[in-house]
Amino acid sequence: MANTYTQCYIHLVFSPKNRAALIGKQWKTDLEKYIAGIISNNNHKLLAIGTMPDHIHIFIGYNVTQLIPKLIEEIKTSTNSWINKNKLTSQKFEWQKGYGAFSNSRSQIDNVIKYVLSQEEHHKKNSFREEYMKILNKNGIDFDEQFIFDFFE
Question: What is the pTM of this model?
Answer without folding.
Answer: 0.83
